[in-house]
Fold this protein.
Amino acid sequence: MVIHLFTIMKRFPRWHAIGVAALTFVMLSVAMWPAPSQSVIVELPPQVVIPAPSPEIPEEPQFTRVAEEVQPGDTLSTVFERANAGVRVLYRMLAIEEISTPLERIYPGQSFEFEFDADNLLRSVTFSESILVKHRISLTDDGFDIEKVVREPEIHTRFAEATIDSSLYLSAKEAGLSDNMIMQMATLYGWDIDFALDIRAGDTFSLIYQEEYLDGEKLGDGPILVARFVNQGREVNALRYTDEGGRTDYYSPNGDSMRKAFLRTPMDVFRISSSFNPNRRHPVLNTIRAHKGTDYAAPTGTPIKVTGDGKVVSAGRNGGYGNVVVVQHGGGIRTLYAHMSQFSKNARAGNRVRQGQIIGYVGATGQVTGPHLHYEFLVHGVHKNPQTVDLPTAQPLDRQFLPQFEEFASNMMGQLQVFEETYVAAD
Ligand SMILES: [Zn+2]
């Protein structure tokens, strides 16, 4: 257990002398104890004999603890009133900036614990801002002691790898990745690989990533540290790096940003059911016509994302396109999204839109046989295949950081390779 304890005020009651770690342990244990009772019952194995308390040692003061969870619509006053702590003490507390700042906003799910002494006087209030951050305010003879306790989760570094047989999602699941981690991977590679159309059986991926644990329980996923994706024989490597200027981003091993000015896919890849063959016979006109875009089959109502920053040129009904939105981007690039069931509120002519914003929803308006998104990518009026067009990259790594980065990159890629060569998947 790693604990950082910050004490804002210098004056402590004497019992603080028992040591920071012990105190913190007690405090955190306190938070887990059940509702107040006359004595604390500790379950012990039957063979342990509990010695009778020796008469010389004065009894510990009996504290009563009241836990209150923040409910929707709660204010600090309603929480303090529910705990019978009184609001006068609250106002005295809020006059002190170190106390009022963390209490400025409270949210449902956060919790308070009030501690009362035998005379029913409030002795302390512990505010659990999150599972990791607690503020304890103790009432003293001449004011308050304030402590902030920050627990740090344990970071576990993990490795996973898979060969895709049918779907990226299922292969990733089988490799032990959470939904969150799969989305992180899809986002990380969303600029380079169209997960809806490009994935083939035999594609492989491997990654080193982090998970956060607290008291042996998983809190959540940390970031991906390094990843390799081999798509149809093309290897795409990505590394997470924080430069000395404090900027964190994902880069290829040569220092290019993984981010591009355009997403490859205008939808969450896992919502796309299939894609159409672009050289197919047109299902309505029953003729083969030059198909100028990419079609993504997805259920009606699936959100459509604008693939790059830009400005909406038009949003409205237009013949065979049905409900269609056209967006102008920098560099003479336009994107077009057709057959929508509905527009989003972002889809108004003249509106600025940002990459990834929802611009509308999949539908079957216009000349179609079923719900799908028809997506076009035009450079100076010429249609380009959005899957293969060379996309401008976002900001690369600052050149001054390149030497450190290259060392870091070769180290991380080396680690990934060692894992790939030695890892045997658990059954
Ligand atoms: Zn189409």
Notes: DSSP finds seven helices and 22 strands in the chain.
